[in-house]
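Whiteboard transcription, Tuesday session. T.W. wrote the structure tokens on the left side:
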């Protein structure tokens, strides 16, 4: 059964690229990818005065994290280009597209949503680890090689992850909707997103749908 799951067709890559019309995001004139890693704990307030805290971890070109906005738990995940294009997901399922850019050697984080922008300051606090049935490192293989690699972290009913899918850096943010079910957004570095559904199998593998052909992720 596991071998059957691993036989995910490489044609799914073409379906994914077709679905999102993906184009690699190049930096504009005078722009460069951030030299500072997007990892650490940042705190501040939104433009309407609500307290905001984000705990971020960067792995390769993927970014994931969790935090609170005005006391409400959230997760963020996305991929890096000249800034990090991420999707913020709340416990009620609402989502918001954001752009994250570090400055001052990582001492400050710019959080932009459209034309609005706020700044968060880095604190000395270490990011808190998460745990849950979906948490772990996973890999999916097909006839042409590795299809996907994801590192997922679960915080209560919220799920965040980063990795690569069809050789593209991605972030995964969403909600656990049942004992073995989750749903959310896969975010690419050009800020495009795809809605995913995930099902956890009895052997610990995860079947991901919404990105072309189903992807069978096996624990690493």
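and on the right, the sequence the group agreed on:
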């Amino acid at each position: 059964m596991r071998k059957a799951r691993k036989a995910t067709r490489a044609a799914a890559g073409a379906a994914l690229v077709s679905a999102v019309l993906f184009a690699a995001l190049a930096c504009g004139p005078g722009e460069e990818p951030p030299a500072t890693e997007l990892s650490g704990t940042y705190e501040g307030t939104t433009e309407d005065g609500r307290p905001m805290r984000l705990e971020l971890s960067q792995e390769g070109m993927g970014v994931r994290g969790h935090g609170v906005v005005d006391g409400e738990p959230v997760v963020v995940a996305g991929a890096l280009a000249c800034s990090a294009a991420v999707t913020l997901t709340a416990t009620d399922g609402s989502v918001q597209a954001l752009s994250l850019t570090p400055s001052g050697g990582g001492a400050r984080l710019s959080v932009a949503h459209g034309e609005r922008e706020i700044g968060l300051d880095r604190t000395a606090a270490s990011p808190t680890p998460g745990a849950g049935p979906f948490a772990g490192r996973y890999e999916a293989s097909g006839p042409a090689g590795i299809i996907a690699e994801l590192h997922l972290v679960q915080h209560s009913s919220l799920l965040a992850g980063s990795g690569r899918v069809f050789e593209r850096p991605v972030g995964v943010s969403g909600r656990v909707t049942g004992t073995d079910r989750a749903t959310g957004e896969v975010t690419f570095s050009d800020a495009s997103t795809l809605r995913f559904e995930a099902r956890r199998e009895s052997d610990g593998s995860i079947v991901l749908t919404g990105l072309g052909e189903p992807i069978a992720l096996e624990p690493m």
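Someone added at the bottom: The two ends are 17 Å apart (CA to CA).
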